[in-house]
Specification:
By secondary structure, the chain is α+β, with helices and mostly antiparallel strands. The protein is built from four helices and twelve strands. It has a twelve-stranded mixed beta sheet.
């Protein structure tokens, strides 16, 4: 047979083979009903930019940030999810010197407490302890207006799309947020209240911290999330921010 025939044969059936791989992969992902993601946390170099800090305090602040950065290396966070709900929290681990610094790390990333997301009611409830009191803070879902960009990168076996948003802080300032979203995993969740980006967020970056996936486990059965009892009084995000600022002043 001619060379043209073999060229056509391999091209044609190569396309069919790739199509079959896509269909099988999509079918496997379509069967996923719940899962678990573990994240590690990193400190970007931008966190050490202390231009707004008084010069006399900069050395002290850099030293404290270096301690916190070391604590980051031994801290993990976990997201459990199904199609209706998710739960995100820090895992209690010991640092290198034997001290439990998990809560300090979580607080530095505004990730202290437990974040419960309820997709049907479009709400996020944060269970957090502050000054010996437990608060249930209700937030909107999604909390951000994501813009999905035509830029991708591979994280493990998943092609992720870049998404950007602006986060308004409790002090009235704003910071840019960058996420890498696995749109092939149809679960609208991510770290803390960073949700609603069109898929699972596998990596999230702000000027202060970075969350990166360290392990993904997917299940073909729907595993229930032990959602918090919301019979207790809920407070708004604005009230929580006011309480938090007053507690630190």
């Amino acid at each position: 047979m001619s060379k043209d025939f073999y060229s056509f044969y391999y091209l044609k059936y190569g396309e069919i083979f790739l199509l079959l791989i896509f269909v099988v992969s999509y079918g496997c992902l379509a069967q996923v009903k719940s899962g678990r993601i573990d994240y590690k946390i990193l400190m970007p170099e931008s966190a050490f930019e202390l231009k707004s800090v008084n010069i006399s305090m900069r050395d002290y602040m850099k030293n404290e940030l270096m301690k916190l950065k070391q604590a980051y290396s031994s801290t993990q966070f976990r997201l459990k999810f199904n199609h209706s709900n998710s739960m995100f929290k820090v895992l209690q681990t010991m640092s290198i010197d034997g001290q439990n610094t998990s809560n300090d790390v979580a607080m530095s990333a505004d990730a202290n407490g437990i974040f419960y997301t309820d997709a049907p009611s479009k709400s996020v409830i944060r269970q957090v302890h502050f000054e010996n009191t437990e608060y249930l803070v209700k937030e909107e879902y999604p909390a951000f207006e994501w813009k999905i960009l035509d830029k991708t990168k591979q994280i493990g076996q998943y092609t992720c799309y870049k998404a950007v948003a602006i986060k308004k802080l409790g002090n009235g300032k704003s910071i840019p947020v960058e996420a890498w979203v696995a749109t092939s995993l149809p679960f609208n969740y991510g770290p803390t209240n960073y949700s609603g980006a069109g898929g699972l967020i596998l990596e999230l970056k702000t000027p202060l911290f970075i969350f990166k996936v360290s392990e993904i486990r997917l299940f073909d059965e729907e595993r229930e999330i032990n959602f918090i009892d919301t019979d207790e009084e809920l407070i708004s995000l604005s009230k929580w921010n006011a309480l938090f600022r007053r507690g630190w002043n």
